[in-house]
Design a protein that fits this description.
The protein is built from seven helices and no strands. It has 164 residues and is mainly alpha-helical. It has a single domain, classed as Four Helix Bundle (Hemerythrin (Met), subunit A), CATH 1.20.120. This is DUF8154 domain-containing protein.
Length: 164
């Protein structure tokens, strides 16, 4: 029997309404107006969240957040350097990786390895035909943290970073 509207009402209406209305309490640290800083700080939150999830043993979510932190950090760099129009959403989760290689920020080798890592492992872990483990989650947090740290320092905006 399929789920129908009555089965999930009023939660569905509440969720729809929450996204329609402004004037709500924003997440601390994300109340910035520049598109590049929004991406940077989302990356910070994702990375901090990944570290907490790792500590609590939620490896699937850790891996997901670490991959997304890498994506947001690269997008921060692309917007900061004028290589991405923030009004245009990325076409896929690997758009930031590929665009970073196109403009010479990542070597082709690194971009290929990151894209392969995403395609072969993130999707497999997410859809559960690949097992999330503590070692995999730990390695992804370390990779996301290193990429984040290098980019923030390279751009000279470590003062804007809100990583915990």
């Amino acid at each position: 029997m399929p789920i129908n509207h009555d089965d999930i009402e009023p939660e569905l209406s509440n969720a729809q309404e929450a996204f329609r209305h402004g004037g709500q309490t924003p997440e601390e640290g994300l109340d910035v107006s520049s598109a590049d800083l929004v991406q940077l700080r989302k990356a910070c939150r994702l990375l901090s969240g990944a570290e907490r999830l790792l500590e609590d043993g939620y490896y699937t979510l850790t891996i997901e957040a670490a991959f997304t932190s890498i994506e947001r950090t690269l997008l921060f760099w692309l917007i900061t350097e004028g290589h991405h129009d923030p009004s245009q959403p990325p076409q896929s989760h690997t758009t930031a990786i590929n665009r970073s290689a196109e403009v010479g920020f990542l070597t082709g080798e690194v971009a290929t390895e990151l894209e392969d890592l995403w395609n072969e492992n993130r999707a497999h872990t997410y859809y559960q035909d690949g097992m999330a483990t503590d070692d995999r989650a730990d390695a992804m947090v370390a990779l996301a943290g290193e990429i984040h740290s290098q980019i923030v320092n390279l751009v000279g905006q470590s003062h804007e970073c809100i990583c915990e």
